[in-house]
Amino acid sequence: MTSDALKRAFVERAKALGFDTIRVTSPDSIPLAPERLKAWLEAGHHGAMDWMVETAERRSDPRTLWPEVRSIILLGLNYGPATDPLAALAMKGHGSVSVYSRNRDYHDVIKGKLKEVAGFLASKASSDVKVFVDTAPVMEKPLAQAAGLGWQGKHTVVVSREFGSWLFLGAIFTTAELPVDEPERDHCGSCRRCLDICPTEAFPAPYQLDARRCISYLTIEHKGHIPAELRTGIGNRIFGCDDCLAVCPWNKFAQTGREARLMQRDDLAALPLADLARLNDPSFRTRFSGTPIKRTGRDRFVRNVLIAIGNSNKPELAEEAVRLLDDASPLVRAMAVWAMAQLLPPADVAGHAHGRAERELDADVREEWRRALSPAHAEETAQ
After folding, report:
1. pTM for the whole structure
2. In terms of DSSP bridges, do strands 151-152 and 158-159 run parallel, antiparallel, or are they unpaired?
3. What is the pLDDT of residues 245-273, one digit of tens each?
4. DSSP conformational letter for 106
5. Cα separation of 15 and 210, whole Å?
6. Cα–Cα distance between 222 and 41 in angstroms, integer?
7. How far, in Å, CA of 244 to CA of 206, rounded?
């Protein structure tokens, strides 16, 4: 079988398994990636994701990861939502979760498909293969642009002329020599919708993302307390953020010609904050079993829920924050103090502080109490 015929057979098999777009590039197709990655890391834009530093060398050159690789196949699966992904943001008593998390964990969904189609390639080409889905030091986005699958937009996410900003990416490294595709050029033009909509101003410049200000990073990856100055911008986003993706004008193409679109669970589109605040560890695990949300753990998730409660402008939700003032987790207690202080008058805050603030052992929680009881905060609340 010729390399062209092999590629055609592979693409046909991949599409039969549900992949929407398949392109091929070479291991040496991203020569600028190492320098760009180094600059991003040196600026500290990776936040607490220390593994990005530790794997920088392997991440910047595919051949460092696997010297035998001859071709890299990038595959995309469209997960474009059928409804407005930002609709839940107006429902202040509910929490909004990112579109990608409203179903089974995409790592599980894609990895099985990738292994199956990679096995097909290995048998047809008598070649070795390795499969990657966002769990190894592979720079999928630059490789996707080099392969012609799409381009990295100003929001740093891959944008496709066919599927907009809604693509799950997977990669197959192989020792087989396959014909490569032409790289995709940038089609963003003067548009900056994705930059302007960001609630926390996480883009210091086009094509640059500061993860330390990104709501997706803060609500999913960040393990500590979320900085006070960023909390109001988070609104009711309790797991991830779709704003910069959802406003991309190329998304209009993601809604057409896709019969097998990944369906999102309706029950995960908007979640009542009062119910979520009452989750303990077992009920959290049960509620979100099989979804990406489970990865944060109960404490981080309830931290996010409390920030949404504090931003809700619904005093009736204050009782959920008050109930969590004595939670076992300092992460939860700290945000319970903050949320309560956003919703209740200063006198009530002081009443709930009595006894608790004095006996609190955690320094971060004590600091939240100090801010909540400060004259400056009382002034803000009164306004």
Report:
1. 0.92
2. antiparallel
3. 999 999 988 754 444 456 667 778 789 99
4. H
5. 35
6. 17
7. 12
Cα–Cα distance for residue pair 93/83, rounded to 1 Å: 20
The CATH fold of domain 3-81+102-174: NADH Oxidase (3.40.109)
Alpha carbon of 161 to those of 5, 58, 166, 197: distances in Å? 26, 30, 11, 21
Helix (H) or strand (E) holding 8: helix 3-16
* Residues designated catalytic: 134
Q: Which of 136, 116, 132, 151 is nearest to 248 (CA)?
A: 151
Helix (H, G, I), strand (E, B) or coil at 122: helix
Q: Give the burial string for 158-194 (b: 16+ CB within 10 Å, else e).
A: bbbebbbbbbbbbbbbbbbebebbebbeeebeebeeb
Instruction: Note the pLDDT tens digit of each residue in 83-126.
Output: 899 999 999 999 999 999 988 887 788 889 999 999 999 999 99
> How is residue 113 written in tokens?
């498909």
Residues of the chain with CATH 3.40.109: 3-81+102-174
Q: How far apart are CA 309 and CA 375, in angstroms?
A: 22
